[in-house]
Amino acid sequence: MTDKNTNLTMLVDFYELTMAHGYFETGMVDTIGCFDLFFRRVPDDGGFAIMAGLEQLIDYLQKLTFTPEDITYLRNRNLFSEGFLNYLENFKFVCDVYAIEEGTPIFPGEPIVIIKGPIIQAQFIETIALLYINHQSLIATKANRIVRAAKGRPVLEMGARRAQGSDGAILGARAAYIGGTSGSSCTIADSLYGVQALGTMAHSWVQSFDTEYDAFYTYAKLYPESCTLLVDTYDTLKSGIPNAIKIFNEYLVPRGYKKGAIRIDSGDAAYLSKKARRMLDVAGLTDIKIVISNSLDEYTIKDLLIQKAPIDSFGVGERLITSKTEPVFGGVYKLVAIEVDGKLKPKIKISNNAEKITTPGFKQVYRLFDKTSKKAIADVITLANEEINSDEPYVIFDPNHTWKRKRITDFVAVKLLQPIFVKGELVYDVPHIEDIRTYSKEQVSTLWEESLRFEKPHQYYVDLSQKLWDLKHDLLKSHSENS
Using one digit for the tens of pLDDT, what is the confidence trace for 355-369? Predict the structure, then answer.
């Protein structure tokens, strides 16, 4: 397991070291390169993703240093010159970093992190940048889908035991909270990141007592103010719920504790929750909530609510913490410019697969909001030195079907890429996770309902400015003519 004090400098793909050595040996140590981190498609064919993982990337970059053990390892590989190893021994991160803030809805093709600085350094951090942003953006996106499916009902992330390793559990819980979950079963995520830890009992607790009633009674005495009873250890309808009703009516309610819950972790959730609600209501326990867990995701939750299952909250495990339906985010890291004679020269990667052709140059991303509705109209990727003036009409156009154009008025243009590091110095105040979570909810609310659909959502507009479009196509034409 890694924590905030673990040195992860060597968590790189080995080619990042061989390329860094190559840059050093060919006199490119001070050559400035610019890299974009972006993704090509939204998981689960959704309408948008949620940006997450920036805090961990910041923490890594602040601590980026090579230990004596790292240098010894590299020396023993007999691949690297002593001059290069000396450079690593005295390493200091001096790049500029720009990023879209955590919690922001993000879309394919737009840079969500930009690294600009000595190419030897910017290239080196490719793996860790992708690792943090890919993983947490994936889980935050999945969590947001599940939370939206629950339609205001609390969702507890409870997948630690099914996560891919300890970091998957801890950072997954953090990302899920950004995505909108109410808390996590993972206690250390609360200790490290402020993700509220929640939980009640397992079936083993019930089995540990002579009777189910004794297990419930003991638990109720210990936790009368937050008593949730797991009712499916033996027989949900014939044993679990009747015993829970006895505990509430005979012990808790007479002592003034009128709130509590039952949890159902197996069986047909729609059928059992309806039966449970009737039994609780007949017993006068209308304030007692029903919690459902057991292999849930957004599709199951959506179907349960369509069936009008009277469920008050959901516990979601493996299908959230692993994003089981689509467990890869697919972010990539590409060189888009390199300094030549003191000026950044745009670079483009060309492919027979049009989706893999990159957008060149040092860039900015603007989000255009309608002044009246406050809804997001489109994102526009521009060159870094371009400004979109909200006081003047602006024409957006489809970068692939350029005849599709729209003249925008009465809008506000907001820069999404914020400076995080300037020449290696942190200039960004990392927000508290509660603020990130609140911000994310607010930003998702600016998207049109059509973009929020799970099935065939509206494709949000991500356009290029005219100058950037011209640059890209000039480079494509130039490469075509010279090939």
Answer: 889 999 999 999 999
Q: Rounded to whole angstroms, how far apart are CA atoms 397 and 399?
A: 6
Last residue within a domain, chosen from 241, 268, 292: 292
Residue with tokens 């990141």: 193
Residue 281 CA: distances (Å) to CA of 36, 269, 288, 308: 57, 18, 9, 16
- The total number of structural domains in the chain stands at 2
- Interval 162-190: pLDDT, tens: 999 999 999 999 999 999 999 999 999 99
pLDDT tens digit string along 42-66? 999 999 999 999 999 999 999 999 9
Exposed, middle or buried, 203 (CB in 10 Å: 0-12/13-18/19+)?
Answer: middle
Query: ∠ at Cα 227 (226, 233), nearest 5°?
Result: 145
Q: Identify the pLDDT of residue 377.
A: 97
Q: Give the domain range for residue 117.
A: 14-139+327-482
Q: In what side-by-side order are the strands of the sheet with 343-346? A: 343-346, 331-340, 32-39, 113-118, 96-100, 417-422, 425-426
- Tell me the pTM: 0.96
Spatial CA neighbour of 150 closest among 306, 36, 8: 306
- Pairing status of strand 331-340 against strand 343-346: antiparallel
Q: Residue 345 and residue 52: Cα distance in Å, rounded?
A: 30
Residue 258, token pair as written in the block: 């009128």
**First-to-last CA distance in the chain?**
49
* Structural domain contains residue 23: yes
On whether residue 72 sits in a domain, the answer given is: yes
